[in-house]
């Protein structure tokens, strides 16, 4: 089969059967289009998927490295290539998988930015609760910190997704996987107050959406990022200032106070514990401090 045909079939499979997000499908398309362009240097005629060898993939990765792509970006592009050839193998389009022997480079794990508890308190105190927009902003920030939601998850919430009596929120995460996450009393109070003035923000064009823009539509991630960045800049010196930092802060504070990593992982919606383990750095430091203060020979 022609490479272009195999690529289109694969992307269609990712979109319809695997239900990948449009962003993921586009990331795969870009990576595999780059790979296709690199193959044109080695193949004069039509590129058949079954003729591609492991050496072709290694050559492409070498080109990425020479172009100063980051390890993280190269890892993403390798993942796209491996997924393509795995698909082709399962569909019997090729006899041997040329990507099976390609090693994925390890990326350097950066510790996530997070806020101190006093900074979080200062952030929540900024907003004027007499203003509808401030009530919305406070409710969103309280919810991000209280439940560790991704900004996309929070903005997808509908008015009835938060259960006040049970203190829980129903979240649709990556891959449309639903999970139930606890919500703190302060976040519930902030959301309740926001709901009482929600109609004052403007004409409601999307009645289901919990967080509305000034135009009455569902609030966008760009609007949310700008808002969070603006107010975080007033209270913290942390390098990153974004909604995701509030998610990092949620996980860090829970683990620092002794929460078990399995529970935190479930609340974050992580598919494996290894993803959550990066947040244990603060807990480890807390244990070291406790050890130094308590152990007679420390």
Structural features, described:
Strand 2 and strand 3 form a beta hairpin. The N and C termini lie far apart (67 Å). By secondary structure, this protein is mostly helical. The chain has 13 helices and 3 strands, in the order αααααααβββαααααα. The protein has helices at residues 3-16, 22-39, 54-66, 71-90, 117-124, 132-147, 151-156, 185-197, 221-232, 243-256, 261-268, 273-276, 281-294, and strands at 162-163, 168-172, 178-182. The chain is globular.
Q: Which labels suit this protein?
A:
single chain; 298 residues; mainly alpha; hpI Integrase, Chain A; 2 domains; 3-stranded antiparallel sheet; 3 strands; 54% helix; 4% strand
Write the layout of secondary structure elements.
Blueprint: H1 3-16, H2 22-39, H3 54-66, H4 71-90, H5 117-124, H6 132-147, H7 151-156, E1 162-163, E2 168-172, E3 178-182, H8 185-197, H9 221-232, H10 243-256, H11 261-268, H12 273-276, H13 281-294
Helix pairs in contact: 1-2, 2-4, 3-4, 6-8, 6-10, 10-13
Strand order of the largest sheet: 1-2-3
CATH class membership of the largest domain:
Mainly Alpha
CATH topology of the largest domain: hpI Integrase, Chain A
What is the count of helical runs?
Answer: 13
Quick rundown:
The protein has 298 residues and is mainly α. It has helices spanning 3-16, 22-39, 54-66, 71-90, 117-124, 132-147, 151-156, 185-197, 221-232, 243-256, 261-268, 273-276, 281-294, and strands at 162-163, 168-172, 178-182.
